[in-house]
Amino acid sequence: MSLANDLHLKPAEETERIAATLRQQLGDALNRRGLVVGMSGGIDSSVCAALAVRAVGAAHVFGLLMPEQDSDRNSLGLASRCAEALGISYEIEDITEILAALGCYRRRNAAIRRLVPDFQDNWRFKVVLPGGRLDSDRLNVSYLAIEAPGGAVRQVRLPPAEYREIVAATNFKQRVRTMLEYYHADRLHYAVVGTPNRLEYDQGFFVKGGDGLADVKPIAHLYKTQVYELAEFLGVPAEIRSRTPTTDTYSLPQTQEEFYFALPTATLDLVLYAHNLGMNPAAVAAELGRTPEEATRALRDIEQKRTATRYLHMPPLLVEPVLEREPV
User: All domains of the chain, ordered by start, with CATH?
Assistant: First the structure.
């Protein structure tokens, strides 16, 4: 068997299936008249915007572009050109002032200065995982990579307290963006589109109350490679399709792989698919051209992330079910 071949879609059929489902969800379940899509210039949000247009027409899709001071300046141009190519209305909401008022940057930088006292607010940085994590059983310990002006990038190991504080402050970004998406959805009587693909959804690569919050999630069942197949079919601009997936969260350029995933997303697609099929490590290793030990670590990493992020998928917990009618 070939796992890569198994993941191939029939893009036209899948597009129509998703579009029909979106129309049904919008009318029957949500009673809304259009869709709001937060557009980052990345592949997932661009595909979601294109699917929304297929579902309800460009006149009923609203794009929202929400840069801030750490955003890659190319992202705004990519997102705006995609929105214009789709023929949808869109607005740019720079969220820097909102984040500053919430203390996003101040809280984050205070945590960094506990580790690097000379850190300046204008220095670029990112949070990264060590490379070669499938070559050993080392823990997923994150590092802070800091670039002083004119200097080389240096790395400092992140203790748990500082790591949590930096991530907590950074999560304001996703939560503010979702807040604005719902503002525009409320004023337009639209629904909010969530953009996670299957890797992100399954592995908890989203923020609860942030990019994890939406009314519809049209590509959460699609592996990343399948999203790229749809992107080509839907005519998503080549400059977006050829772009390396990024977090676009920290001021230094950062791939999703170095921040969260242990493998390139195309490889991780195959590992996740094989795991969902119940394949053993030896079979996965043979399929990927990796050692059984590396396959075992990759499969274990999937389960560890599922366990660690399971609460992200959970609704609020109640003392008892709240019924529409009292039991007789």
Answer: 3-100+165-310 (3.40.50.620), 101-164 (no CATH)
